[in-house]
Design goal:
Helix 8 packs across helix 9 and helix 12 packs antiparallel against helix 13. This protein has a 6-stranded antiparallel sheet with strand order 12-14-13-16-17-15, sandwiched between helices. The two termini are about 30 Å apart. By secondary structure, the chain is α+β, with helices and mostly antiparallel strands. The radius of gyration is 23 Å and the shape is globular. The chain is built from 15 helices and 17 strands. Helix content is about 30%, strand content about 20%. The protein folds into 4 domains: about 80 residues, Uridine Diphospho-n-acetylenolpyruvylglucosamine Reductase, domain 2 (2-Layer Sandwich), CATH 3.30.43.10; about 130 residues, Uridine Diphospho-n-acetylenolpyruvylglucosamine Reductase, domain 3, CATH 3.30.465.10; about 110 residues, Alpha-Beta Plaits (2-Layer Sandwich), CATH 3.30.70; about 90 residues, 2-Layer Sandwich (Alpha-Beta Plaits), CATH 3.30.70.
Amino acid sequence: MSVREELKKIVGNENIVEDTDSLLRYCADESPFKGKMPNYAVKVKSADEIKNILKLANKKKIPVVPSSSKIHFNGASLPTQGGILLDMSEMDKILLIDERNRKIIIEPGVSWKKIDEELEKKKLRMFNPLFPHSGTSALTDLLERVPALIPKFEYADPILTLEAVFPTGDLMRTGSASITMSYKGDNPAVDLVCPYGPGMDFFRLFHGAQGTLGVVTWAAVKLEHRSPLKKLFLFGYEGIEDAISDIQKIQRSMIGQECFILDNTNASLILSQGDISKCEALKRKLPKFLAMLMLRGAKRRPEEKIAYEEKALKEIMKDKDNEISSSFEQESEWLKGNVEKCWPDEKVYWKNMLKGRVLQISYKTTANRIPHLLSKYEQIVSTTNMKNIECGLYIQPIEYGRAYHCEHHLYYEDNGKDISDKILSFNRQAVMGLNSEGAFFSTPYGDVGKIIFDKTGGYREAVRKIKNIFDPAGIMNPGRLSF
């Protein structure tokens, strides 16, 4: 029986995509990376279908690339060797919202927009990144370690338990969900939502793996109360050192929730609320760097919480006169009401507003290294002699400022293969240059993955051994990381 006939038995003829025009859409995303056309794209709706497809792929030695949604920004879901594209965008069910224990169970195709809409009804929220695209997969963002805007220890790892299908077609559930192999009803094991054990921990095995070790079919994720009482502060800076210094003091005081830094390019894109005609004038008015802090009331005694946190903030900033929210009253009010949501889907996405395309380069570092790494990045940009590009910056403290996520955005117009080649060449130079100065790339994308892994020695060899154990046929997303 042919591969197509076997796929037809698993998912039905209507869920197999094989015409060239449709398949070509799976070869590119919002990044400059390009993929190869898959032989088939298969729309799956259940873990059983995924299990059977992976068993077939193992038998036939066919590459499989999982894709959770139609919107991606890093190239990790682009096939490098053809094969089967596993389209999970229709696995978009919210399986459970547990208000009492503050958790949600979501499938991989559930978008940030759907989560926002459903949780707002129950006055709950998930820990969103910086204005994610309304159509991106929330679960994929969590697995790819996209940082949340709230830099607290308890929110740093929001996934509790998950279900995954290994490349061999075997199914596994982690932590407390493994006891009964069930997430339905009032199951006491799942309600404990313990991500650890029994014994060894497997729940982080799929984090940052870019689909090379299996397919996650659902995950239980932490939620938090959505407080209606909140107060936003914007602080302006001309130097990044002062901005980092103040944010460190705020984070060490453990006050506030959302907290991040933007340069004036990214700040103008976001505060323009999708209106590109406002960006240039707004950028001229803004300081070079903008730090944002949100104070939020608790579920109980919210006024009291905001009052003592505001008192602590005033003590930290008592010698400063750089609070600027009153100078941008309309923009501040919009930010206060929307920062916990995805970007409005009726607007052009903020990362696509300037030039249409964006290259994202993100890494982790410590507060004291940030100024040097930003200077190194600017040096690399200046030496590449690239024209008609603009750069943006987003800095996110992690775990009360223990570390920082730095994200550079290179905005460019897609004028064909020449510009794509230039952007990819720049990406390699930037990653190698920043890495040599101490930037840590925890999720390297594209061909730089091999460059990063080649520097890790024993770690690389251990990862390859793990890959061989779980994916002996080497079918899962080949060409990613060091595989």
